[in-house]
Amino acid sequence: MKNKLNLEPMFSPKSITIIGASGGEGKISARPLYLLRKLGYQGSIYPVNAKYNEIEGFPCFQDIESLPRDIDMAILSIRATDVLPALERLAKRSVKSAVVFSSGFAEIGENGRELQQRLTEFVERTGIPVCGPNSLGFFNLKDKAVASFQQIEASRMDPIAFITQSGAFGTLTYKMLEEMEVGYQYFVSSGNEAGVDFFDYVHYFAEQEEIKVIGGYIEGARDMEKMDNAIRLCQHHDKPLILMKVGTSQLGANAAISHTSSLAGDSSIYSSYFQQRNVVQVDDEEELIDTINLFHKAKTSPKRGGAAIVTISGGAGIVMADKCEQNNVELTKLMPETITQLEEMLPAFASVKNPIDVTAQIIQDLDKLSGSIRVLLEDEGVEALVIYMQIGDPVAPVIIPKLSKIANETNKTFVVCWAGASEKTKEMLSAGGICWLPTPSRTIRALKNLLHYNQRKELLSEKNNIFAERLTNCTELEAFEGTINEYTGKSYLRTYGISTPAGNIARNVEEAIEAANTIGYPVVLKVLSQQIAHKSEVGVVKINVNSDAEVRSSFEEIMLNALKYDLKIQVDGILVEEMIGEGVEVMVGSIQDPLFGPCVLLGLGGIFVEVFKDSVIRPAPLTIEDAKEMIQSIKGYDILKGVRGKGPYDVHALAETLVRVSELCLDQKDWLQELDINPVMVHEEGKGITALDALFVGKQEALSLSR
Amino acid sequence: MKNKLNLEPMFSPKSITIIGASGGEGKISARPLYLLRKLGYQGSIYPVNAKYNEIEGFPCFQDIESLPRDIDMAILSIRATDVLPALERLAKRSVKSAVVFSSGFAEIGENGRELQQRLTEFVERTGIPVCGPNSLGFFNLKDKAVASFQQIEASRMDPIAFITQSGAFGTLTYKMLEEMEVGYQYFVSSGNEAGVDFFDYVHYFAEQEEIKVIGGYIEGARDMEKMDNAIRLCQHHDKPLILMKVGTSQLGANAAISHTSSLAGDSSIYSSYFQQRNVVQVDDEEELIDTINLFHKAKTSPKRGGAAIVTISGGAGIVMADKCEQNNVELTKLMPETITQLEEMLPAFASVKNPIDVTAQIIQDLDKLSGSIRVLLEDEGVEALVIYMQIGDPVAPVIIPKLSKIANETNKTFVVCWAGASEKTKEMLSAGGICWLPTPSRTIRALKNLLHYNQRKELLSEKNNIFAERLTNCTELEAFEGTINEYTGKSYLRTYGISTPAGNIARNVEEAIEAANTIGYPVVLKVLSQQIAHKSEVGVVKINVNSDAEVRSSFEEIMLNALKYDLKIQVDGILVEEMIGEGVEVMVGSIQDPLFGPCVLLGLGGIFVEVFKDSVIRPAPLTIEDAKEMIQSIKGYDILKGVRGKGPYDVHALAETLVRVSELCLDQKDWLQELDINPVMVHEEGKGITALDALFVGKQEALSLSR
User: Fold this and answer.
1) Shortest CB distance from A246 goes to which of B319, B391, B638?
2) Of B141, B172, B83, whose CA–CA distance to A360 is shortest?
3) Collapsed DSSP state (helix, strand, coil) of residue A371
4) Rounded distance between C-alpha atoms, residue A124 and residue A122, angstroms
5) Span B483-494, average pLDDT
6) A108-112, A455-459, B588-592: lowest mean pLDDT where?
7) Does B151 sit within 8 Å of A391, measured CB to CB?
């Protein structure tokens, strides 16, 4: 989609036509009209069906050609093969948007794929946005516009938009939120996304002033640029985007030759990218709805701090404290004044450590409960306050008004975890404008997302003020297919300012000895051959070679092992290099992902990257801050910071190297499929890094070379 | 508690007296009588209260002395200070058990602790079991015996017993399960456990024939032997024990000198021990109730296999497949016959890969749905079948009878995940004897517990047939306080059959040279001093010493560094040892935990044990199978199995070493506080291990030596 589609007529239509409409309330073709009437849609409705003259009191049109021109939105509930002809006829009547419920497109395989391709072409050609096909439809409760066949009550409307790539899953979240007394304003089931995709909707909702939170279920994005623009727009308007990303597919056909790519996988890129852009990624259905619920209701303290917990149950307090630790939520260390005031206020047996166990007896004296909460909200270190209550129907009508008062007065995050609440209690909580969640664990999990989002938002707004200068010049490197030898690879790295050991190619023992003497002992000898990707495993690398005699014997041994590996091996020479001193070995690389394009990868070196799966991958380009975050996010980061008297190591130089690789792989993306610099030796702080190996893989042959 | 308490009169009382009873239904003192009447308790009830002659139609006794003798159970709802005198008087009337609701004991701190101690002594002296104090009480619905002041409906009774160390939390689980149409038969809030503890109840319920599943909320156990006996009894009777263990406390006062103990922590010992004994440990409230629910309803296939998923929503299928991967639940690879049959049965666009997406259209043709399920249940690789449905009230009455038929016919695990079910649908599912759970993620999480429990059960029953012979002789080692030097430590290890390098103590350079020549070059030189715990960090270890001259210079350097470390250092000599070849470094150790006693620890060696927190700890004694499980459970296990052409390493010798350490630390538990063998070099397969260092810490001074 090159030109931005106008989704306004779709979501806020002044007129709607229903192609293939019918009466009643049960059939798919009957649902839209039924729901539009039920909700009291105020625009014009034009049913089309040759079989009827009238449907549910609406005059029925015999064909599309009889319709008035310029209708905002058309609902198509007809056979798949009839969809495109109908759309063409609607286009002639200047219809402005459409939604297609019909299935029978790409989801049924080969037969439907062509039909769907033609639908895509229709949208591209006409600029008419089409939701679907194979969609449950959508609704916008503000305008009472429902183009859907879901079972919806639409009894609540909150400033939330939800987009789903699975209609059924979306409906489930709607139902689950309804039980929490929360409702979406916008809901859209994006179906097969022939013409309008997930992030087109995100983009549109980000621009809707009244929408506070955008949620979604996503299996995959289709267009990196579109996704990135939409997500940046959410950031710009400070609209939290809360996504459940499902499907842990592999890089599949792009399976690749180097370790770099075998460690990648698109779900890890998504996670890393979402983290980078402060998209809130949730893990399951409950976390999704709880987080949406909390974000849309929560006030946000301008100051960063931790959480305070007030509980009537010691057990729930322990559970919440455990969950805080597991989820990296700081429990505020209370100020001495706070503790003193609480001690004066609460009975002797209450625990005034955070979590604060006020015991169930507090219910006899609710002013003390309110008082304690107010004291805690005044503590500077408290960003969010959670109060735990449970069941207790008899007391709810007395407690809830007090909590409601606090909720409305404070400008900090105030959450009530009311476990086992009855329907009546739930209604009272919602009516009181209180943000409430159902169990201790779920409450802390949602709170984690809120607090981390706020922290990250602040960090990103600082970072976004930093102008990111290029570290390297954009340089043309000679493109190739398949691999090149290490010597040339290292020269490419040096072009991008990445240090490599001093080295020379030797064609025979004498040249090797000469090279070694020029470089100075000790040296490293390695075979140069495009046929051996992992040299150290086949004995064609000799380190710590200390004399002319050792060069001689090593040279012979390497050549022998190379021939053992493959009698027909083609050898470009022996690389003689300076021996590089101590440091921490990491691996740095890049791959091209089908969606994200060039991505940069960092892993702890040696066998640990394999065994501990300790690596991180992010789409290029990287800023120096991105690179630092990547470094900090690997599990082995402590090794770089220094342990047991070793280190610290040059993390800044490593971050710069990541940025250089990011610039390299973006500049060369037309031909470069993969880059694997393994190991990169990170020296002590201030002493930089050295790339000890380099494997470049050009496109085309990347596949045939994979082992 | 030395003699086993008889809990029968407590849980199945033929007569009950209520001390401090009152009328009505609201007050704590009124609740038991109210609930006993409401439920229709059939035994005798004797209220005691000097203020009344009659309560709710029951003659009221003026004092305990007027009560008949041999009453089975007394409920005490009186002031804390009145509890003990009342119990003494009840004992004189030969009451057989009691429950104390009253708070004001250990939970209020110092003042209540003595009172509680006296209560403990009462139970020990009289053998009368007392539940509480500070307890919500308990119920046994089979006998309609309720000694509680909870809000309970008791509308359902399933073969489940639940024990909770937090009354409020327990009530919450009761409420949550009630919403899933499930009810406990036994429930007990154990309160402060002055006389009867958590595992006394587990023991009792494990012996109750009609109980199928035992669940619980536990903050901590009090007695290792009691816990272990109760858990083994559950295993013996094949009663799954499902626990939510909360509180991540530290070893606290036992903070210790070596790395071994700083890595330990009782919550990791609990987890490891629970895994060992096949106790199902859950992570949060939902997982707790879902797992209890699934275990009590599920049938269990005698054959081990994976899961098959049938779904009407592609999205839910993806979510469940993701969760299977995350939770290590195998999705069955279907047999070709199964696939063929499914293809014949299902529409072309359905996906017959597992998860099987039958699409929502299947609802038009339910025989196909039943048919597909039956085909799948006949696949040998399918141990459990999950079917996903959602909302869809109109179809529930048609579908549920068909599912019910399947559920009752099959002897495999059959679970319906019905998301967003209405109350009516829930009732129909339960009435149909169907095991149902509410969301895709929760379903798979509970299923994981069931499948893993079944696998582990089979494994344990095989293991339990192996007679575990001691590997070492029980030997007396000379006890000491604080530390001993490495040389003596290594001699202790050799006594237990753990290999160490050949070595000698040298008092001067000449002796060192002599020792080196006896051993043969290369050698290692180390200072021997009890004042330096981590030698390599202060430069008092020299490896790869190759000649007399190098011995001389190394000796001097070591002595210099030792003096630099502490001018007043006391040196026992220089240890000269053979240089040990290559291998993988691990650390093995033991600590004494206050609850679990001697525990054995294994970690990957070097800095990785610290940085990656890659260690595992289990209570001694260990069988060789336990030891192998420990080895397999560390993240770095792949390194031992061999990667990149290195290894495999001698895992069996390492397992034996763990067993030897287990025997050592149990034999010497009276004086040995900690043992730290770091590193243990694991050689290639068949070549054994070598302990390269040994730090023994005797009791008493362990604390003062901690850094």
Assistant:
1) B319
2) B172
3) helix
4) 5
5) 91
6) A108-112
7) yes
Half-sphere exposure for A378 (CA within 13 Å, toward CB): 12
Report the alpha-carbon distance of residue A96 to residue A126 in Å, rounded: 10
Sign of CA dihedral A332, A337, A339, A345: negative
What are the distances in angstroms from CA A90 to CA A17, A135, A584, B477?
10, 19, 65, 94
User: With contacts defined as CB-CB under 8 Å, which chain A residues touch B103?
Assistant: 349
Question: Which of B205, B179, B72 has the alpha carbon at shortest distance from B129?
Answer: B72
Query: Taking CB atoms and an 8 Å cutoff, what residues of chain A touch B393?
Result: 151
Closest by CA to B373, choosing from B400, B399, B330, B406, is B406
Of B286, B316, B635, the CB nearest to A612: B635
Contact A171 B439 (CB under 8 A): no
User: Nearest-CA residue of chain B relative to A323?
Assistant: B284
CA distance A188 to chain B (A): 15
For residue A359, give the chain B residue with the closest CA. B168
Q: A201, A281, A277: which is closest to A235 by C-alpha?
A: A277
What is the rounded (10 degree) CA torsion for A553, A554, A555, A558? Answer: 130
Helix (H) or strand (E) holding B191: none
Pairing of strands B73-76, B15-19: parallel
- Flag if B349 and A635 touch (Cβ within 8 Å): no
Q: What totals of helices (H) and strands (E) does chain B contain, helices first?
A: 24, 30
Chain A positions in Cβ-Cβ contact with residue B284 (cut-off 8 Å): 319, 323, 439, 441-442
Q: Which residues of B touch A639 (CB under 8 A)?
A: 607, 611
Name the residue among A218, A213, A281 with its Cα closest to residue A246.
A218
B620-670: pLDDT as tens digits: 999 999 999 999 999 889 999 988 778 899 999 999 999 999 999 999 999
- Write down the pLDDT at residue A706: 39
Structure tokens at A20: 């293939």
Which ipTM did the prediction report? Answer: 0.91
CA–CA distance, A274 with A268 (Å, rounded to integer): 10
For residues A684 and B284, give the distance between their C-alpha atoms in angstroms, rounded to a whole number. 44
Q: In what order do the strands lie in the sheet with A306-311?
A: A356-357, A306-311, A382-390, A413-419, A435-437
Q: How far is B666 from chain A (nearest CA, A)?
A: 32
The upper half-sphere exposure of residue A695, i.e. CA atoms within 13 Å in the direction of its Cβ, equals: 24
Q: Is B193 left (phi over 0), alpha (psi -120 to 50) or beta?
A: left
**What tokens does A86 get?**
């109908």
Instruction: Report the DSSP pairing between strands B44-48 and B15-19.
Output: parallel
CB atoms within 10 A of CB B306: 18
- Please name the residue that has the structure tokens 């698109």: A266
pLDDT single digits (tens) A527-541: 998 777 677 778 889
A285/B441 CB distance under 8 A: yes
Pairs of residues, one from chain A and one from chain B, whose beta carbons lie less than 8 Å apart: 186
Q: What is the pLDDT of residues B172-181, one digit of tens each?
A: 999 999 999 9
Which chain A positions have a beta carbon within 8 Å of B315's beta carbon?
Answer: 164-170, 217, 219, 246
Q: Which of B247, B392, B537 is facing A318, going by the closest CB pair? A: B247
Q: Do A171 and B390 touch (CB under 8 A)?
A: yes
Q: Which residues in chain B have Cβ-Cβ distances shorter than 8 Å to A166?
A: 313-316, 318
Q: How far apart are CA B317 and CA B325, in angstroms?
A: 12
Strand ordering across the sheet containing B15-19:
B44-48, B15-19, B73-76, B98-100, B130-131
Please report how many Cα atoms fall inside a 13 Å half-sphere around the Cα of residue A459, on the Cβ side: 13
| In contact, B385 and B444? CB cutoff 8 Å | no
Q: Which residues of A touch B635 (CB under 8 A)?
A: 611-612
